[in-house]
Amino acid sequence: MGNFKFAMTLLVKEYKKSAFYALTMVFAIAVCFIFFNIMNNDLLADPGAVVGGATWNQVNVPLSTTLSFIIICFCCFMIFFANSFFISRKTNEIAIMTLSGNSSFKSTKYLIYQTFVLLLIAAPIGLALGMAVTPISNYWMFHYLGIEASIYHIPSAAFMQTIVVVAMILVALCVFASGYIYRNDISSLLQQEKAMDFSDKRKLVIPSAVYLFLYVFGIVMMFMNEHSATAYIAPTGVGIVGAIGLIRYALPEYIKKFKEKKLLEKRYALIYVSNLGYSIQRAILLISLMMISVTGMIAAIAANQGAPREYITGVIGYIVIIILLITSIVYKFCMEAQTRKTLFFNLWKIGYTRKEITKIIKYEVFYFYLVLLLIPMIYIIIISGCFIYHGEMSVAFALGVIGVYFIPVVCSGLITYYNYKKAVVAPIHGGKNDGK
């Protein structure tokens, strides 16, 4: 069987591994198209268009253009992130191919074939979705800005720039796939999917209390600084450093001690707490991005309520970023669930019922999304409260902003629970433990 045919056979056979990845690409490409339309649409052009100068201080770039560019870059990053996780779930296949005598070049081609086909499928669907949603985006923006024009007016530059971005992404993904193959040997490939913990490789071990202090100090800094749209960037950055430290280093240490002292005889907690710690650590990057993106967008939106173009672009960007990040988190969690089939099957073999396994999954998913809600939500509420206090944001708008974050997270939790349960509980059949 040829390399290409083998790659396509496994891609179809294990379609669940690639479904969320393809959906991420579809949504990201659609969002790129929508924001290229905002950047290139003459009807939405900012009166203070990009102006050059002899020095950087003389260059003027409208915030709406800057936000659109940042969101497009963010979409590209989400594709790279999804690709990274997609490839990491292919380690056993690549290791087996290597043991069978395939060269690194053939393994690289195997990954490139699958990536190319998925992108070839996702690109036209993403463009079509973007074309379908763009009139809705135009309607909102035209209505808010008082523009009377056809909502179906889409500049040709939006198509060309989206195609160029897709081509650049394809090249970057091919380079990434090649680098991944050459960086990992057989031993590391076989161990990657089995590893369920992170070793602390720090040369300088910082006490956990320092990370807690940084997280709290970030909140204190918000009240110490003079109120402005940019005054919350540094405090949020400090808070993120603290949050990352708590999740990456303090939480595993706490979980380990807590398990040894309290959970050794707990039938459910010992398992779901261990899985929870691993899942949270694997999502550190996404949780950090969620925190900095959401808080930054809220500040940008609140500060530009008097600038219609920047304001409406910020609102759309805020919604899009949340959906992108939530989609990536669901994808990551569901892919992790695929690797835990053996774990839960073995639990069933030693006496756990399907109902008990479902209970373990429910607690793990619930506490994961509780962490995802609480860590950024504390900062979101404080920043919104500061803008309300200074009369730059209404309570109704703040509740809407919080709701836009809260509702997708809750919905994604339900979706994750359903897919997780379907992945590990549904395959368990037979025996007296199959029922209740």
TrEMBL record:
Domain ABC3 transporter permease C-terminal: start-end pairs: 67-180
Please name the Pfam families in this protein's record.
Answer: FtsX
Entry keyword set: Cell membrane, Membrane, Transmembrane, Transmembrane helix
- InterPro entries noted in UniProt: ABC-4_Integral_Memb_Prot, ABC3_permease_C
Q: What GO CC annotations are associated with the protein?
A: plasma membrane
List where the protein spans the membrane: 20-39, 67-89, 110-137, 157-183, 204-224, 230-251, 283-303, 315-334, 365-390, 396-418
Q: Where in the cell is it found?
A: Cell membrane
Q: How does it sit in the membrane?
A: Multi-pass membrane protein
Per the record, the major location class is membrane
The name of this protein is ABC transporter permease
